[in-house]
Amino acid sequence: MRAEGPGAAEGPGLYVYAVVRAGTPVPRKSGGVGSPPAPLRTVGAGPVAAVVSAAPAQLRARRRDLLAHQDLLTRLAASGPVLPMRFGMVAPDEDALRAQLAAAEAGHLASLDRVAGHIEMNLKALPAHDSLAALVAGDATVRRLRDATRRRPGYEANVRLGEAVASALARRAGEAGRRALRELAPMARATAGGPEVPGCALNVCFLVAQADSDRFRATAERFAAAHGDHVDLRLAGPLPCYSFVEAVAPGAPAPPAAVGGG
To answer: For the chain, which residues make up each domain, given as ranges?
Structure first.
């Protein structure tokens, strides 16, 4: 299995989207990566199978292909548990892919059992930049620097004020984000930290039972509305369970950001 970089030329091979249980149907009217979209099929090995298509001659991280990859994963997840592969995973041929599936069978089955009946929700906490008035009212340091800048305006005073505002906004967002995490975590089977995102105070993924997803979303939305002067909360999902499967062959699961989810 190889992961092709953007712009790399492809030889013969199979583009791998996901590992599923044997017998999981490929969604109708769904195409794979490439232009025109490559037909989808499965390659099985005992109780597990990989969803694949022919690898394009040129594989790049184009928006169309990234969206096709994620759309297929979302559609597959409607039929059962899915172990998503990161964008760009290519197997040399069916024999190599079947060998990898067989070698990792136990790990795949355990991961499929773990995410069955669950979805992933991603929560990001960002500074609430539209709440400067509330920040000034509630932060003595920012208020003092603002007043000093008004009395004696200048470049250095403006820099100090800007740095204090940015720091206070980030701190308030982080504190509110951690409160949201404490409130939402009990409704999830598991949580996982996401990759660092510039300007983001908190990036967390939740493994949520599908039956609880509406309650989870409603709780997050209520919290966001009640704390809008402290944090800009952004909830994404439902997503395939990128963050809660083991990184085993034939490829590592994708983080949400890799295919535009988070």
So the answer is: 2-116, 119-242
